[in-house]
Amino acid sequence: MNRRQMLLGSAAALCAAGSARAGNETFQIQRSEAEWRALLSPAEYEVLREEATEPPGSSPLNGEARTGTYHCRGCDLPLYPSAAKYDSGTGWPSFHSALPGAVATRADRSFIFQVRTEVHCSRCGSHLGHVFDDGPEPTGKRHCLNGLALVFRPT
Fold it and tell me: What is the pLDDT of residues 39-60, one digit of tens each?
């Protein structure tokens, strides 16, 4: 094995390890792949269950300004209050904080040589997006989410 083959093989292994969902997590709501596919559109399934990212600027929730709560599309758990939403300029709905206990995080190693923090629903494990350390006060966090992963319920 030459150096190039070793580097390419290592990179492929890192990608495969990073894209796999953590197998030891259990969630209150468990569904089969067939049940998830019946519940979600193909695009929603790709985001929530396969950890894809929707194109920036594609979500109607970017411009949502009413008072209410953002829920998980997979299980309807309330996740984010509208008071925590802000315009990050990234093209995705962004929040500085979630409702207590609504989301959980884990390391995302799907990019070579970069570890991001993935955020998912604490009840069903659906992928929501990522959390970054460049948000506004009071948390300094930016929960950068896929609009396809959310349902907005106005009050």
Answer: 999 999 999 999 999 999 999 9
